[in-house]
Amino acid sequence: MLIDANWRILTVGDGDLSFSLSLSRQLKPGHLCASIYDDEATLRSKYQLHALDSLRDSNVPVLSEFDVNNPNCWEALQGKRFDAVIFQFPLIPAFTSKQAFDAQPLSTNTLNRRLLRNFIDFSHRFALDPAGPMLALITSKDVKPYCEWNLEDSLCNGLGYHYLGQSEFNIDVFEGYRIRNVDRDKHVKDTSGITYYWSAKPHAVLRESLYLPPYLTQNHCAMCRAGPFLSEQDKHAHLGSKKHAMMLRHEKDWLAYLSTY
């Protein structure tokens, strides 16, 4: 993850706030605002170890009940005053019941894509200072279900934001950061992460420090992150595979949702 100590940063969805606490030690004082989806009571009951009190002791503001999908939460920020907004390992919470799952017309894949699209869009509309770099960062994993969201391509269709590239996320740089399971007080095994960058600005210089993976080049299937294909037969075999058919279904569902957006 490439960050600048001078950036004014908002973190969202930071479960136990351990990422925000670690990040605060790398930024200038007063340059961080943290937020969580839960209310304070839920945070304290859910996580035996959390960083809420440590952040407050360091005079870092913490916003609770911040729902990324809710524009009203973003409007409550009261102005575009950040240079970057960061969302670490986003994943929609599990449904509370089978009844709730059955009542949801959108697939889980589409719901996760909607969450990330709203994050990027609302970051720009409500949080990012037009005079600054205007960066929306998402750190994710190259495993299911994260790799099935087609982040680099159709996520921001029609919004006009630039996908700039990605960088490796090295958790060792963030001492004390605990990656959590959604809705559970359980520390997830540290796996390799990737931080993706979007901006309303082209950022020619920053792009030079980021990279694009090979699957975004010719002779690959970017949607499936597959390739390179060694022959036409190899390519057609992939296009006829179960994996490609599944990704086509996900993409069709997503584009159908965007048509009503």
Explain this structure.
With 261 residues, the chain is of the alpha/beta class. The protein folds into two domains: 204 residues, Rossmann fold, CATH 3.40.50; 46 residues. It is 31% helix and 14% strand. It is built from nine helices and seven strands; from the N terminus they run E-H-E-H-H-E-H-E-H-H-E-E-E-H-H-H. The protein has a seven-stranded mixed sheet, with helices on both faces. Helix 1 links the parallel strand 1 and strand 2.
Question: Which labels suit this protein?
Answer:
261 residues; alpha/beta; Rossmann fold; 7 strands; 31% helix; globular
Quick structural gist:
This protein is an alpha/beta fold and 261 residues long. It is 31% helix and 14% strand. The protein has helices spanning 18-24, 40-46, 52-57, 71-75, 98-103, 108-127, 204-209, 232-239, 242-258; strands at residues 9-12, 32-35, 62-63, 84-88, 135-140, 162-169, 193-199.
The total of beta strands comes to 7
Unreliable parts? none
* CATH architecture identity of the largest domain: 3-Layer(aba) Sandwich
For the biggest sheet, the summary is: 7 strands, mixed
The fourth-level CATH homologous superfamily of the largest domain is Vaccinia Virus protein VP39
Instruction: Identify the overall geometry.
Output: globular
**Distance separating the two termini:** 31 Å
Chart the SSEs and their pairings:
Elements: E1 9-12, H1 18-24, E2 32-35, H2 40-46, H3 52-57, E3 62-63, H4 71-75, E4 84-88, H5 98-103, H6 108-127, E5 135-140, E6 162-169, E7 193-199, H7 204-209, H8 232-239, H9 242-258
Parallel strand pairs: 1-2, 1-4, 2-3, 4-5
Antiparallel strand pairs: 5-7, 6-7
